[in-house]
User: What shape does this take?
Amino acid sequence: MALALTPGWFYRLVARPGLQRLAARLPIARRFARRDGAGLFDLVQGFVRAQVLLALVELDLPRRLLAGPESVETLARFAALPPDRMQILCQAGAGIGLLRRLKGGRFGLTRQGAALTGVPGLSEMIRHHGAFYRDMSDPVALLRGDVETELAGVWPYVFGGSAPPEVAARYSDLMAQSQRLVAQDTLAQISLTGVSRLLDVGGGTGVFLDEVHRVADGVERVLFDLPEVVAGCTDASITVVAGSFRTDALPKGADAISLIRVLYDHDDETVMRVLCKVFEALPYGGRIIISEPMSGGTRPDPHTDVYFAFYTLAMRTGRCRSAQELGQMLRQAGFGQPQMPRSQRPFVTSVLSAVKPG
Assistant: This one.
C-alpha cells in the first residue's frame, strides 16, 4: 500500500516496524535507528534513574564519597545494605554519570556527582520529590483533574491559607535552601545600579535580600511576606513587613520590587492582581523584577515545559508561563516593554524586568 505524500508521510513511514528492522541492517540508517532507540529507552527508564538518584541522596553516598573513593563493602557497611545490593546501586550510579568505577571495584564521584552535593537545597528538593512522584503516578488522571494531589498540601500558602508552625518551618526551610541558587542566578542577570530601596514580595525569610546585600550593600532592603513566614528572618538590617499580597496593599517607597519564584505558584487572576498592586506601589520610573522558571512558549523547553509545567499542575494552582505571556500581563498592568536578559540556566530561573512609565 502506497503512502500518500501528506505532511506526516515520513513519520508514518518511520513508524512501520518493517522499516525499523530494515534500518537496523543498513549502515547509513543504523546510526539514526540506534540513536532514536537509545533516546526512547532513556525516556522509558527516566523514573528509575530518578529513583536511583533518590537512593544515593537518601543514603548520603555523594557526601560520603567527597572524601575519596571507597569499596562497595565499606559503603555497604556505612549504608546498612547487603554488599550485593550496594553493588547494584553503585553500578547504577555510575551508569547515570554520578559515580565512576575505579580499578579494584572501588567507586568515586564524577564531577557531576560532586556538584550534586554543592548545589544549595538540591538534596532536600530531591527528597521532597516523593510527593510529586506519587502525584504523577497516574499522569492522565492528573491532567484530567481527577486526583487530590499530595503536593498541594506541601506548599501551604499558595491557596492563601495559613499553616501550623511545624509546616511553616518546613516550608520556609525548603524555600530558603532552594532560593539561594535562584537568587544568585537572578542577580547575575540584572543590575541594581540606581536602586536605592528594594521591596521583595513573597520573599520568605529573606534569602534573596541577603544575596542582594552581597552584590549591592548600599540598597535598603524590605521584606514582605506572611507573618508566619517572615518570622524566620533573622537579619536585623532588613525591614520586615508582614502581610499578604492577596489581601493587603504593598508597602510604598521602594523604587524596585522583586517577585522571585512567586507568580508561577498562582493562577492568572491572582497574578494580575499582584502585578497591579506592584504597579500601584512603585513610583514613576520604578522597576519590577520577575524571576522564575519560564516556559519556552513557541520553542518548548526540555526542562521548564516538562518538570515545572507538571509540578505546578500537581500543586493545583499556578502554571509555568512563557516570557511572552508574562510580558503581556505586565503591559496590561501598565508597565512598559519588558526586558529579558539571556539566562544561562533556564532550568534554574529566567528574569523579566519592566519600568513604570511616566
User: Anything to note?
Assistant: The two ends are 68 Å apart (CA to CA). The chain has a mean pLDDT of 88. Residues 165-189 form the longest helix (25 residues).
